[in-house]
Fold this protein.
Amino acid sequence: MQTGLLGPLRQKIDRRSYLVLVAVGLLTPLLVWWAAATWGGADPVFLPGPRQVLQRVQVWYHDENLLDDLSISVLRVLAGWLLSVLIALPLGLYIGTYARVQAVLEPLTDLVRYMPAVAFVPLIMLWIGIDEQAKVAVIFIGTFFQMVLMVAEDVRRVPITQVEAGQTMGASRRELIEKVILPSAKPALLDTLRLTMGWAWTYLVVAELVAANSGLGFAIIKAQRFLQTDKIFAGILLIGLLGLAMDQGFRLIHRLAFPWLHRSA
Amino acid sequence: MSTPVVVSCSEVVKRFQRGSGTTLALDRISLDVHEGEFVTLVGASGCGKSTLLRALAGLEQHDSGVIAVDGAPIRGPGAERAMVFQNYSLYPWLTVRDNISFTRQLAVHTRERTSASVEAALGRADALIRLMGLQEVADAHPNQLSGGMQQRVAIARALMSRPRILLMDEPFGALDAQTREVMHDLILHVSNLERCTVVFVTHDVEEAIYLGQRVVVMAPRPGRIDGIYSVPLPRLRSQPMKNLPEFIALKAGILDRIRATAGMQTDVDMLAQLSDRAHAGPAGSG
């Protein structure tokens, strides 16, 4: 069958070809970057090469407390994200379960969701100040409103027959939520947590604009002032790698927690 | 009928709001189901057979009239009225065994938490697994099972807490014809062994006659009972009975009633026109 470069539509490929293609997808940009930096003739201030960035990471690690920047950023992201999770999970559960709660809260959430989190920064500084809480607040605002709506949608996607079957077996309202709706929505909820964790990372740099003196985002902003392009590259790449690692962590948890969803037929 | 009445509907009315007007989904339905009886509801789409079943389950509220179980009017769903759905009702995160014993997690069924009752429940789950032929897949998850096996699990789960009545909403509607025949004989066998009372909704007249002791034929607009037929066959059925003259006659009679009440006259007219045109030849366009 003639399938061309893209292969057949919506069909699985074997693990080996998958890994090869993953490598191609990741290595190609790296090679292009390296080639452009080496032979492109651009000033290293504008386009530092991979080797230069790697050296920069080493200097950062040995002399400029990379691990401190890294851990404080991870902490901020986790704190803002966890705060979102703590409020968004129960709230989304209620919005997705009860039409009355949905009517009251969902349009409001939808409205706030479209307000740019970055624009809240001056207000946050005014109301919360410039301490750690302010940074956590930026990440919280960036993730929370999206998360609530996604959780509500996950809960609404639980097949109604699963709920009705529970009802005709005599489950109380509380039992329906605890023993049917929550376990049924769990895999989707974990995916929502994974996606929103990604967004939390994207708000890190904005959060560390607020009078920070440490963190990956802060390091990037400071490097900009001193025209240390290689450090900007290093910071961005590190955030990307950390995000990717967490994403893979979530996928691993998904496979371990919901084995029946990952069994090949 | 000599056995006591388990479920009785009297003058049950259900209206659906549709745009500015309302439709009568159930128009003063009265029906008694006796202990140990297997009653099937059949009719064209829109006749209210599923609505009636869901009202019996308490999943749908009726506007007036009374639905009573053992003489007590129902208020919402209850464990004594278990329901088997067409599909997607199993819990994919539980194994077959845990799906079947799910009711044991619920407060209604565990008020007397003695070791004897726990043991009895475990024995009951095992017995149902054997009865339904699920031994091989007891530790599998639902998504590893075929549609027919999934419905076996759903039936076992519904029977687990010995409900007063088993409500079945087109439970075999999504299965292929061969699997369906097997399931028919299985559900007859099981209902006989468990001595359970069953109300079974289907759009398939043959299925309705083969399973039912009484066939309730419903008609649409408004949803109502058109007629109730006793099936002149012994309780224990077998596939060859489908060829008996009384089976065929009953099936023809019920199908006639369904056609007559289905309100598909416009479709019939259109088909007649189409065949007229086909006979007139391909030249007859416009």
User: Anything to note?
Assistant: The interface with chain A takes residues 57-59, 76-79, 81-83, 85-93, 102-103, 105-109, 141, 143-144, 154, 157-158, 161, 167 of chain B (CB under 8 Å).
